[in-house]
């Protein structure tokens, strides 16, 4: 670390501390009923200021229990928008014309160096999750990281290890676990209402594709090298993967295997997650992935005899449990149960070992306070991402895999084993450091 950078970090820390101190001297009663004093709030730094980062900003602010003090993005215009929107939120809350409380950083490591930041929210593209989360854990930050947890299985395990080593709280952004219809579905399955589970059907998109985009002139304010980051394949800029914030489409980086895992990891990280939860496999996984043909999908086989089918996307994303005595079908906002008389069966909170969270963001903040695991702990997120990544490996190689969920190894397949990780830029390598 250079003396100049060290000086900058000390200066930013002192400036941030002054802002927080000035705010905290306001008497609690002046702030209004229900207002949380700064001393009772958690200071957050956001890493990633695109659509997802902006989407997460509001629910975190609405908890009334956080103070966002910093943000970082390789895209200057996206960072600027995030800072302005956050400051505007605070200005309106405090009846002020302007309110400057959030500092921007082009290098997220400067954000991590601030001792006054309790936790970070990682909302970057998937290829950055592993490096950012490990560095954040090593910097002593609690972490909220968007799903899917990791681009590769080995990066996911590195994230778990760093979290445990540094005694950090880690919430994976699989927020469906905090939605009533999914919790109800899992409790119905675990309670035995549909009998013995025989099969699970997961309906999500397929694997990513190889890079096929041409080089385009770089837009002003985007540090493309920083955006590409850990990837050794330094692909040229194309607006399809990194569009401006006001683009009328979602960034398509997840369609390409250098940056994401296609529909398998995008919606798969949601629906495979519910399947794992319902099967009580949050710390384990299947023992075999059977490949047939791309249009026929995959069959994941568990040691207990349950089969989980990934079928090509058709209609809405969903997860369906098929038992000896009935079925549970669940999608966002929809739950269908047979027998129908069990549709609205009531359960006590925590029944059948199903963690009860009403709000994914408050649950994370509660875990920070109690130092107990949140509803979607890093190990849980890692196991779900592993399901997705193993499926992508099977699709890529067009063959079946034998998987050991305890040792996290693929049996007798060196080529598939290499795909459990990836070569990373030495500056960001968390697999060989």
UniProtKB/TrEMBL annotation:
An MF annotation (GO) of this entry: nucleotide binding
Organism the protein comes from: Dyadobacter jejuensis
Pfam family, one: GFO_IDH_MocA
Organismal lineage: Bacteria, Pseudomonadati, Bacteroidota, Cytophagia, Cytophagales
Positions of the Gfo/Idh/MocA-like oxidoreductase N-terminal domain: 45-173
Gene3D superfamilies: Dihydrodipicolinate Reductase, domain 2 (3.30.360.10), NAD(P)-binding Rossmann-like Domain (3.40.50.720)
SUPFAM superfamilies the record matches: Glyceraldehyde-3-phosphate dehydrogenase-like, C-terminal domain (SSF55347), NAD(P)-binding Rossmann-fold domains (SSF51735)
PROSITE patterns: TAT
Protein name: Putative dehydrogenase
Span of domain Gfo/Idh/MocA-like oxidoreductase bacterial type C-terminal: 212-429
């Amino acid at each position: 670390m250079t003396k100049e950078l060290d000086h900058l970090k000390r200066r930013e820390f002192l400036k941030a501390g002054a802002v927080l101190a000035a705010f905290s001297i306001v008497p609690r009663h002046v702030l209004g009923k229900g207002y949380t004093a700064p001393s009772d709030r958690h200071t957050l730094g956001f890493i990633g200021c695109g659509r997802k980062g902006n989407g997460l900003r509001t629910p975190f602010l609405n908890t009334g229990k956080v103070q966002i003090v910093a943000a970082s993005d390789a895209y200057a215009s996206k960072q600027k928008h995030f800072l302005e929107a956050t400051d505007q939120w605070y200005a309106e809350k405090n009846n002020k014309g302007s309110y400057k409380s959030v500092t921007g950083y082009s290098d997220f490591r400067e954000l991590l160096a601030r001792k006054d930041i309790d936790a970070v929210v990682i909302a970057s593209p998937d290829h950055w999750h592993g490096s950012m989360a490990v560095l954040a854990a090593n910097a002593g930050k609690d972490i909220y990281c968007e799903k899917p947890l990791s681009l590769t299985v080995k990066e996911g395990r590195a994230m778990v290890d760093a979290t445990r080593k540094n005694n950090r709280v880690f919430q994976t952004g699989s927020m469906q676990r905090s939605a009533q219809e999914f919790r109800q579905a899992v409790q119905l399955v675990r309670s035995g209402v549909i009998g013995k589970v025989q099969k699970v059907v997961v309906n999500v998109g397929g694997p990513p594709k190889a890079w096929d985009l041409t080089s385009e002139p770089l837009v002003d304010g985007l540090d493309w090298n920083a955006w590409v980051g850990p990837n050794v394949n330094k692909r040229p800029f194309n607006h399809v993967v990194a569009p401006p914030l006001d683009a009328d489409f979602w960034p398509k980086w997840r369609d390409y295997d250098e940056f994401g895992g296609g529909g398998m990891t995008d919606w798969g990280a949601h629906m495979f997650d519910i399947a794992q939860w319902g099967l009580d496999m949050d710390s384990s996984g299947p023992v075999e992935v059977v490949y047939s043909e791309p249009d026929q999908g995959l069959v994941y086989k568990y040691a207990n005899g349950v089969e989980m089918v990934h079928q090509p996307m058709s209609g809405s994303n969903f997860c369906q449990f098929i038992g000896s005595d009935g079925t549970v079908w669940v999608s966002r906002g929809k739950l269908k149960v047979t027998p129908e008389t069990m549709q609205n069966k009531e359960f006590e909170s925590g029944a059948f070992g199903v963690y009860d969270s009403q709000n994914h963001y408050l649950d994370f903040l509660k875990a920070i306070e109690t130092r107990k695991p949140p509803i979607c702990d890093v190990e849980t997120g890692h196991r779900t991402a592993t399901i997705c990544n193993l499926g992508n490996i099977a699709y890529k190689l067009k063959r079946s895999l034998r998987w050991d969920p305890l040792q996290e190894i693929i049996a007798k397949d060196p080529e598939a084993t290499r795909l459990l990780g990836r070569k990373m830029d030495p500056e960001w390598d968390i697999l060989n450091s």
